[in-house]
Prior knowledge:
Chain A is built from 2 helices and 6 strands. Chain A is of the alpha+beta class. Chain B is mainly β.
Amino acid sequence: MVTAEAITRSVQTFWAAGFSASATVYPGQQADTSALEEWVELWIESWEEAVRRDASPHIVRVNVTVHCFSRSATAATRVQELADAARDVLARQTIVIRDYDESGTPVLGHVRLREAEMHDMTRPQGAEHRGVLRHAVVAINGRAESLAEAI
Amino acid sequence: MAVSNLTRNLRDGELRIKDGTSGTPQSLTVLLDEGDLRWAVRSNTIEVKDRGSITDGHTRKGDEEPVSLSFTVKWTQLIGKAGNPADPLQLYEMLMFTSGADVVSTSPDGEQETLTMEFTVVDPAGVAGEKITFSKVYRESLTMTEGDDANLIAFSGRAFETEPLVERV
């Protein structure tokens, strides 16, 4: 069974190994971003288990989002650069899901991420931040499958 | 109570395919199927009307018809054992009787290649599960389809019998 925890840790590990464009803040992590010029937040926002037979492998549809923030006053498109970098790391990737609680971190399955969808969220920001904090979101749907063993 | 009236759905079913290997048949449980197994018991009736009148006419049994059945499965590996004898048998090569997979027909030599399919439906109330056995199932078509979410393998065939065997398990 591919658990939400295993999917999350596996995606975060994959992300940490591949993304170096800026600092990453993970859910649950407390970070003082007031001093940061830019950062990204990696979220797995939903896990939806697909209908299946009792004997069939687990299939979980996941939604991964990366929120990119930039305060750069000199590079107006920096937030788009961060979004592109995030997309390059995650889009169309197949990520191994491992059980990091077990010795040897055995493989539980894989998550296949699809093409990315990007949204510029800068405008909804409060007027006091407009032109200062830019915010872009990269959203990628994926499908996690546990290993299917022949019976 | 020996029966339960709790509705069954695709979560309760399991499709298993067996070949005709003597002793211990090769078999595999169909994983990642779409839960759309469908079969139809068909019958022919000869209507004999009396000068066009149904009221005065009668019916007779017509020719027997085999059971038609179909199901769809998400496409994973097509060739396993046929590619390497150490690899597990895969659905595609079993349904196709691919050379090297050593799949044996359940019908005698010279007849069409057939398999046995067993569809077990567990009673979610735990009272009375049932197994539906289709014998001498032959392939009419195997349709491979690409898709965004998953590629699919669709089997369509017939069981050369008038009805499947339904038994309590």
